[in-house]
Amino acid sequence: MDLNLIKKLVKILDSTGVTDIEIEENGFRIKIAKKIRGTQETTHPQIMAHSISAEQTKVQIPSETALEKEKQSTNLHEIKSPIVGTFYRAPAPDADPYVQIGDYVTTGTVLCIVEAMKLMNEIETDVTGKIVKILVENGRPVEYNQPLFLLEAS
């Protein structure tokens, strides 16, 4: 595993609200986690690495969540975060949000920003439809592939 990648992950962990990161590469799994203490605000990343066998990589899929059931019962489409970062609904703190619930959007419309490592990444919709639900609060950390919006595709 690349030492520079591990150092970058530790820096990301230190500079965001994310509490742990786990990656797997070539049979090795690395988990980096902050040690959170009750009243202190300082945190220290911890790194744990171990090899895993093929038997340990089997994943149990939990039963359908309410979100999955809601998605299947209608023509809903998820817009997911392409990166780890911080979710912002507006281009600036004093600006109006890009979209509201009920807004009709077309392919390519900017929905939000995900800030990662001081870069503001505009997240666009890949379908045309109506915003049904905003799944993340403004200013909250998001993970890779985490659903951000539900759209009723048209």
Beta-strand percent range: 35-45%
Q: End-to-end span in angstroms?
A: 45 Å
- CA-based shape: elongated
Written as H for each helix and E for each strand, in order along the chain, the element string is: HEEEHEEEEEEEE
CATH superfamily of the largest domain: RNA polymerase II/Efflux pump adaptor protein, barrel-sandwich hybrid domain
CATH C-level name of the largest domain: Mainly Beta
Helix segment tally: 2
Major pleated sheet: 4 strands, antiparallel
- Would you identify the CATH architecture of the largest domain? Beta Barrel
**Beta-strand segment tally:** 11
- Low-confidence parts, pLDDT < 50 over ≥5 residues? 38-43, 54-64
Summarize the structure.
The protein is mostly beta strands and 154 residues long.
Explain what you see.
- It is a single chain.
- The protein contains two helices and eleven strands.
- A hairpin with an 8-residue loop joins strand 2 (28-35) and strand 3 (44-51).
- The chain has helices spanning 3-15, 66-73; strands at residues 20-25, 28-35, 44-51, 76-80, 85-88, 104-105, 110-116, 119-124, 129-134, 141-142, 147-153.
- Helices cover 14% and strands 40% of the residues.
- It starts with a helix and ends with a strand.
- The chain folds into two domains: 3-54, no CATH class; 66-153, Beta Barrel (OB fold (Dihydrolipoamide Acetyltransferase, E2P)).
- Strands 4-11-9-6 form a four-stranded antiparallel β-sheet, with helices on one face. Strands 8-7-5-10 form a four-stranded antiparallel β-sheet, with no helix packed on it. A three-stranded antiparallel β-sheet has the order 1-2-3, with helices on one face.
- It is mostly beta strands and 154 residues long.
